[in-house]
Specification:
about 130 residues, Nucleotidyltransferase, domain 5, 4 helices
Length: about 130
């Protein structure tokens, strides 16, 4: 890898980290209204309900789960993101959670991140 490429990757990674920290400084989850955190890898989409007062993950869902994978064509598209949003909302209801705060994790609220939020809303979760 060339020096210019390494520098570009480092700049992008730093920009993403600053965006993540900026979001996290303003968003915090409570037991009544946990934080819905979204993470994207190159292959999968993940969502977690986190109570920041105790540091506990209350529920999680990802496009890696067999129940979501079998119903979809791919694991990294918008349909998978919507399915993850619906699944996390279903699991939140089981925990007795109706409202959450949305943590986009430094990603732009567009595309797959927006689909997770829309899927959670369509399943009855209030963001």
């Amino acid at each position: 890898m060339s020096d210019l490429r390494k520098k570009t990757v480092a700049i992008k990674r730093g920009r993403h980290q600053r965006a993540r920290y900026r979001v996290r400084s303003k968003v915090s989850g409570t037991p009544e209204r946990p934080r819905l955190a979204v993470h994207k890898s190159l292959r999968y989409i993940y969502a977690q309900l986190i109570d920041d007062s105790t540091g506990r993950t209350m529920a999680s869902a990802s496009s890696q789960e067999p129940s979501i994978r079998s119903a979809l064509e791919g694991t990294k598209n918008k349909a998978a993101a919507r399915a993850v949003g619906e699944k996390i909302a279903e699991r939140a209801k089981e925990q007795g959670v109706e409202k959450v705060v949305f943590d986009r994790g430094g990603y732009v609220f567009h595309g797959k991140v927006k689909e997770v939020a829309d899927g959670a809303r369509s399943a009855g979760l209030i963001l």
